[in-house]
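re the bet — no i am not wrong, look at it urself. input seq straight from the record:
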Amino acid sequence: MMKHDLVVIGSGPSGQRAAIQAAKLGKRVAVIERRRVVGGVCVNTGTIPSKTFREAVLHLSGFRERGIYGISYTVKQDIQIEDLLFRVEHVIRSEIDVIRNQLARNRIELIEATASFVDAHHLALDDGSGDERIIQTSHIVIACGTNATRDSHIMFDGQQIMVSDDILQLKTIPSSMIVIGAGVIGVEYATMFAALGVRVTIVDKRPTLLPFLDHEISAALTYIAQQNRVTMRLGEEVARVAVVEGARSPVEVTLKSGKTLHAETALYAIGRTGATADLKLEQAGIALDNRGRIEVNQHFQTSVPTIYAVGDVIGYPSLASTSLEQGRAAARHAFGERDDEAHGIGLFPYGIYTVPEISTIGSNEDELTAAGTPYEIGKANFREIARGQIIGDQTGMLKLIFQPDTRKILGVHILGEGATELIHVGQAVMALGGTIDYLADAVFNYPTLAECYKNAALDGINRMRF
């Protein structure tokens, strides 16, 4: 029986980083991947394809240029699903090749099989051949990711009623869509399809869109989505989802309030569930919550100290960016690289790839108000920045929140083109303890969207003078 120092279950971002970090420490490492392709959900059905899909939508629809050329502007008149997926498939192939090369370069064994626990140090591997193989290891990192949550009462067919993992299998672009669930994934896809001209209805039991966002950003996104013909059914719950055969809009969604909605397709986006069902975690003494997720400590250890869990399977924040660092931290801790005993991910940004995109870091107004923390704000609108006029972004905005006495930045909230890139300026300043004065005095390239930081800082300073 071959013995490894570390076996990683899953080849997504967290699994890759855990494996490579352990290999860099001179350990014998294997990665077990049940798919025929590496990269996990991130590369194959989640982060990478959805963001590439979005880029294809924005390019072919001409959405970015409509602020300049008018709402009727489009790059391609008759956009087909094949046009969108062509770009997606190219990027996925490239990413898979990069990952395979990284694993091979670091001499990490890649095993295509389904893993299940025998005990805390042994895994059974099923490669589909009928011959089960047992692998022994000192440490295990569970990085199996998640699956889209499905309601057992709904008949999913992947075309008329689907989850986000089915988007890449669509045969046509629907004329209308009901999105059930206004979480990040639901709202991202809702705004993407709306940019294509699809008539979208969002249903969610919460009264506001993405309530964890700063209230101004959430309100602005809601307004922009409505301007793009997205109908909001907020504060509503779904009672039934069915298909009416032969109807022009065959998907029928009945709400508990008595309303009935019709569309060509429905996207069910009520969160994700840990992909742990086949792992037999009970054999190792590891418990799960009701969403199939694993509880870990600050070092990403499970209840069994030699078994770690990282990435989406441990829940919040469920971001590829944080998952990468979780994997690295877990491997370092497992092999005694404990230079930071209080290791946490620390200050990290959120990137939400709606149309327009959103990024945020630090606290928002509601959180500071609830905590009784005094603050002031400074704002800049993209339409007041030369670069904003050049690219035609009339709705973008950047908002700074800072302490009036220390003048340190407490949060940065951005909506608009390039938000997920712009956020890193604020992240760096916050991480280094910078103040609003640094941004006010800094010289930014002109014309750039980054100038918004200077204008927002000056706006914030002016507010304190009155």
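see?? The CA atoms of residues 5 and 27 lie 6 Å apart. told u. also Residues 81-105 form the longest helix (25 residues). so pay up
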